[in-house]
């Protein structure tokens, strides 16, 4: 299911692209990370990486890259995917050349950027060989860096396992009123993607009802895990699953729930910008992150699901195929993002 | 060099041009854009939306409720506290006065984050303590900071110092003889207070109420932290949300206009209230007021004062320290759980820390220097009527007071993302914003300082052949040194705290500390926020202390 969705999105984005872009609608010839490229990257000396990934993973990953290629500093710009999209739009639109590599949890953004002709297609031989077709754009304009889920989770000190919700509809139970925390689709790409999937699966009435449960509204999908660990609320309606797992694995009283209705699945595409001021360092960073070494680093630190087929998922985590997931539909997100935000605001008042 | 030539004319013209760039252009664009449709034609539709769409009307009403409540609370707290400090023999009065001023160094958004750590309904330290003491079950909370009341409380914490300073200063200046007369005629202490002190202080208190109202009206930081989790918007957070994707600058511009109009009206009212203050000091010099003896109430009074100070100062900083050295902010750190994890993360891993620190202190130093210089020149021109049209300069220097930070941010964004001056994306646009925001206060401070320097000293310099600039540099400036340093410090601190304009105008390259903290808040990284906030406050304190040492050096007192 996952495979078909990403391909559909990639194909559709190619179809939407202006004619000029369609002429070159084949993936670019793979570029190897040659010593010359590395040398050129070192001459640039820095690379700016815009991402929506939690800093506890993004910053160590940047440090690992800096260790691997000494002399190249990575500036990590982290904020929620929706704010990231806005910021990049404003900066590139005002001719401010700053972003080298962008990585966001809202795959729809890449459809827009590709259509605007802002992305520089890039693949290494390793990426061409080891990224399944569903993990990259047909034209090589972007690739999926990793996949995570937006799960329900609860604090085991505040909720007994037998009282825990089994799925999204359970959360409407009056006994959970005032105990919930959730992220906001206007700031978080994970929540934007998940909201589209849930609204499709359960209808908007679901959110209307949920908004009456006195939900603590936070912004990024990376915040509910921190609120649950701190015990501020008992149950997270949504949030990046890898952070729930990371908290649990370091001994925090956190338990993850894969909803009976299905769990929203979120791909995290990554792309190089045409206006990149450090194009060689940008290529090196993308090539490294997508290589078995980079992918293994992400898996080791966070346990997110890798895109490179030579890298295995983290031990002790459920296999992605064993989880009932909801279909991801970036095209639909792209078309309805505005409506999703305004409906959400109508129900939740913010 | 051009020593012999009088440079004053070009300088004066340059100042006027600069003020136009800073104020006229942004406000002009703001008004134009608010009356423009998406397609570019003239329209009133943006204003129609503003007053009919509940997603605008609700924030407007909420904002007015907040401002009125904050104003009332600030007066109720600041007036008695100001009186205790200025007019009674309460112990530690000087210390308490200093601490209230020191609490102003705390950016309001940092205060709001600290109060989340204290009073979030479940994980808040105070609520945990209360449950521990009362044996209440997990879901019961004494305080819920994510509520309208919680937001009003936090805004009041960081607004009452303004009212306090006004009240305490006014009471300092108030003639003691009237009170003495009252008690000689047999009035009791409390009667004197009711019949003499309160009526005399009333205009100042009214002005303080308006200042508090304005602060609350235009504040962005605290609402941005607390209102969204509580499920409502204020006008400033709503304007900010209009800058999120898809950006709607025309609606943001329209939504800024009510803030602008309300602020102008209130400033007029404040000027009227303060204008009446004159009658309190009718002729002659009075002796210093005699402190009122509190007797056995001395100890309860100081306890009360310290309790009030716990709200903006002791409790929040305790919470910040706790969470800086704790893995989870909701746990009290102990010898076995203390960790340097957050410190290491902030300074060794977080790649935005150093650029943001650098940008912040560069901008603060530049804004303080440029702002103090500009204010000095304008104050001089106005005080000495050195140029035709000096009144216009004085007006322009005061005008930004009427422009809320977020509105100025929107205006500057609209004015400088297009030619001829495409400054967006550079530190210049932030510099313009910060200098503009702080100019009125700086100008007022230096304007009153100029009144203390008699023009004949300057005239002597001019008669001996010095140019106007040289006179200013050699004669006036040294006499004004302490006022200039105080103004410099004031702008420095204010710039570091500034969030509302910065959050509209920053780009990734020009991120400042306040915006970095705001971004970290979005992802809930409170440990790093605590470390950064404490660093920010520590550096600010050091800079102020250093400036004050400079200031304290022996010097000729102004005539």
From TrEMBL, chain A:
<dbReference type="InterPro" id="IPR006059">
    <property type="entry name" value="SBP"/>
</dbReference>
<protein>
    <submittedName>
        <fullName>Extracellular solute-binding protein</fullName>
    </submittedName>
</protein>
<dbReference type="InterPro" id="IPR006311">
    <property type="entry name" value="TAT_signal"/>
</dbReference>
<feature type="signal peptide">
    <location>
        <begin position="1"/>
        <end position="26"/>
    </location>
</feature>
<keyword id="KW-0574">Periplasm</keyword>
<dbReference type="InterPro" id="IPR026045">
    <property type="entry name" value="Ferric-bd"/>
</dbReference>
<keyword id="KW-0732">Signal</keyword>
<dbReference type="Pfam" id="PF01547">
    <property type="entry name" value="SBP_bac_1"/>
</dbReference>
UniProtKB/TrEMBL annotation, chain B:
<feature type="transmembrane region" description="Helical">
    <location>
        <begin position="98"/>
        <end position="118"/>
    </location>
</feature>
<feature type="transmembrane region" description="Helical">
    <location>
        <begin position="60"/>
        <end position="86"/>
    </location>
</feature>
<keyword id="KW-0472">Membrane</keyword>
<feature type="transmembrane region" description="Helical">
    <location>
        <begin position="192"/>
        <end position="214"/>
    </location>
</feature>
<dbReference type="InterPro" id="IPR000515">
    <property type="entry name" value="MetI-like"/>
</dbReference>
<keyword id="KW-0812">Transmembrane</keyword>
<keyword id="KW-0813">Transport</keyword>
<keyword id="KW-1003">Cell membrane</keyword>
<feature type="transmembrane region" description="Helical">
    <location>
        <begin position="295"/>
        <end position="315"/>
    </location>
</feature>
<feature type="transmembrane region" description="Helical">
    <location>
        <begin position="479"/>
        <end position="506"/>
    </location>
</feature>
<feature type="transmembrane region" description="Helical">
    <location>
        <begin position="395"/>
        <end position="416"/>
    </location>
</feature>
<feature type="domain" description="ABC transmembrane type-1">
    <location>
        <begin position="60"/>
        <end position="270"/>
    </location>
</feature>
<keyword id="KW-1133">Transmembrane helix</keyword>
<keyword id="KW-0997">Cell inner membrane</keyword>
<feature type="transmembrane region" description="Helical">
    <location>
        <begin position="526"/>
        <end position="547"/>
    </location>
</feature>
<protein>
    <submittedName>
        <fullName>Iron ABC transporter permease</fullName>
    </submittedName>
</protein>
<feature type="transmembrane region" description="Helical">
    <location>
        <begin position="145"/>
        <end position="171"/>
    </location>
</feature>
<dbReference type="InterPro" id="IPR035906">
    <property type="entry name" value="MetI-like_sf"/>
</dbReference>
<feature type="transmembrane region" description="Helical">
    <location>
        <begin position="251"/>
        <end position="274"/>
    </location>
</feature>
<feature type="transmembrane region" description="Helical">
    <location>
        <begin position="361"/>
        <end position="383"/>
    </location>
</feature>
<dbReference type="Pfam" id="PF00528">
    <property type="entry name" value="BPD_transp_1"/>
</dbReference>
<feature type="transmembrane region" description="Helical">
    <location>
        <begin position="422"/>
        <end position="443"/>
    </location>
</feature>
